[in-house]
Write a structure and sequence with these properties.
disordered N terminus, 7 helices, mainly alpha, about 140 residues, disordered C terminus
Length: about 140
């Protein structure tokens, strides 16, 4: 099995095993990784991503355009119970201006008095980070 995993035209997995090994070793509980465990993790990950993409394509608007879009994936993560654990990883995209309006509304609704200046400084820092995230 190791000969087939090392490369060549007859690869059994599409994902790079070296990257998966790095991710697995990033866990403090993992000291060594068996070659079979590495292969099975790679194959399971590949099948999961394939299932997520297929499900999102079939149940999203991408079918109309013959394309899978980010919004299809985020909609699947939000609506399908099986994939809800991905909702934080695949959030719905919103414009920075819409996010800023949401922050202002929360601030108005939640403002009871007190340290308004401190809250404004924190919000300014958040606003800057949102603009940077949207720009990239």
């Amino acid at each position: 099995m190791a000969a087939r995993l090392s490369g060549g035209e007859n690869r059994l997995v599409s994902l790079p095993l070296s990257r998966i090994r790095v991710i697995m070793k990033s866990s403090p509980e993992v000291s060594s990784i068996n070659q079979d465990a590495l292969f099975l993790t790679a194959k399971a990950t590949e099948l999961f991503v394939q299932y997520l993409a297929t499900y999102s394509y079939k149940h999203g608007r991408g079918k109309e355009k013959s394309a899978l879009t980010y919004s299809d994936l985020s909609h699947t993560a939000e609506e399908c119970e099986t994939f809800q654990f991905l909702a934080d990883i695949l959030p719905k995209k919103i414009l920075a201006s819409k996010y800023l309006k949401m922050l202002e509304k929360e601030k108005r609704d939640g403002a009871v008095g007190g340290d308004d200046e401190d809250e404004e400084e924190e919000d300014d820092d958040e606003d800057e980070s949102v603009e940077e995230d949207v720009g990239s």
